[in-house]
Specification:
This protein has 405 residues and is of the alpha+beta class. Among the domains are: 1-139, no CATH class; 191-270, Ribbon (Hormone Receptor, Insulin-like Growth Factor Receptor 1, Chain A domain 2). Helices cover 14% and strands 35% of the residues. The strands form 15 sheets. A 4-stranded mixed sheet has the order 20-19-22-21, with no helix packed on it. It starts with a helix and ends with a helix. GO terms for molecular function: protein serine/threonine kinase activity. This is Serine/threonine protein kinase. Keywords: Kinase, Membrane, Serine/threonine-protein kinase, Transferase, Transmembrane, Transmembrane helix.
Length: 405
Amino acid sequence: MLAIYFAVGALAAECKPSASGGTNINDCAVGKCELVGATEICTECKQGKVPINGACVAFGDGKVTGAGCKDSSGQNPTAASVKCEQCDLANYFLYKGGCYSTSDATGQKLCTAATTAGVCTQGAEGYFAVPGATKTDQSVVACGDTTGVTVSTNNKYVGVDGCAKCDAPSPITGATSLTTAAATCTECTGTKIVKTVTASGKSVTSCVEPAECKDGFFVDATATPNECTACTNENCNACTGAGEGKCTSCKDGDKKYLKKADGSLTGTCVDEAGCTTGSTHYPDDTGTKTCKSCAEGVSNCKTCTKDSGSNTVTCSACLEGFFAESKSTCTACADSNRAVCDGGADQCSKCKDSFNLEGGKCTSASTNKSSLSTGAIAGISIAAVVVVGGLVGFLCWWFVCRGKA
């Protein structure tokens, strides 16, 4: 409902016929009706009447003077008047040719406070109060109104296309010519989400479909409502979330290679030198540019280099348990307990943890030279202690008994 409410909230249209519940068709100028929420208002009346709280009222009516409706020079409306050009009373404000009260139901849909006579100072939900507006300016604008208003200070304030809720723009200062400032959208209509682009310290919002949230942005599903947020790494073309190491592809440029963390589907964007740091990866320019692990170029390879001319990957060191049979082949050691067998499959020079190197072979550190396990040795030791203890006890008993005899 919110999406529908604001989508139709500021559309100029023909007035509804009386039979359809329209109240302005007889007094409003052709094509000068629009909706504020579900309420029809008139923005310009036929001669002799002016809009007060959205309805056309005769220029001499007490409601007109009670709203402070005047022309731009401060004169009361006449028989030739069709709209108000200022609202010169407290709690009233000017909106599209009419004076509205913050205590009236229609006015409350636009503005919740008008503490300065004739000026809205706090927009209602879906609207923002215009910075620097005076009583001769329209002082409230719909969040989705991209036409906006130009105030007496020659500054223009606009909404954001497709925006349902927003924060007012910051006041424009120091401008010497017509300058435009847009509201900051916080929620969009329909299925669209807010996209924020920040450059040179300034942020600009727009409303986009989730499918359009790409090219360095991602849909942040943790935000309520969802948002289109920039990847943390400015070199990311696509990412899975905020934070470093979340890139899934990189933009063309200096840092165009995706270097993934071990076991991860995401990584960071680096230059060619960043790819080869530690010699564990090499730059791959086929398809999506990535830093591939040496093991992807040569199976079971740990460190490597790549020839830029031939694109050939040469392995300089194999993973633990493998040896370099050639510059492009890492072969498993014959004994699975071997960590290094750089002289050949059967020539072990280093064993894995918990194994000892003896005579070119790897034996378990838990086995002694007599082939008895540490468990067996412990059992024998305990049995020996029991036997010795029993013998000592017997001898003590024997000598004590003999002494008494």
